[in-house]
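As a representative case, the lines below give one protein's residues and fold tokens.
***
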Amino acid sequence: MAKYLAQIVVMGAQVVGRAFARALKQEFAASQAAAQARNSAGQHSAAASSITGMSLQEAQQILHVCELTPEAIQKNYEHLFKVNDKSVGGSFYLQSKVVRAKERLDEELSIQTQDKQQSHQKTET
């Protein structure tokens, strides 16, 4: 009786161990694929963040834009730049943050444009 019980426990442990190993392999493969996708799309963006000293999310929050469209960025930039002008009682610090946010978003737009052109060229060849 004890012998059969021990065999059942060992078999159950083997089944669970194999399932765990398979799940671990799948998770590792998915993680590698996500990292590769993030790496290829995000290399330029990360470089732009380090150069401008501002993340894309921070720049979007400063200029109050959800979508990266040149029109929305320019409209919000002009408004916030005028509102924060020192001659009308604004803050030079906030005005400079607005300028840096626009620079960061413009950089991101150019990166996205380059990526689209590169992917378009790859599909043509």
In short: The CA atoms of residues 84 and 94 lie 6 Å apart. Residues 2-52 form the longest helix (51 residues).
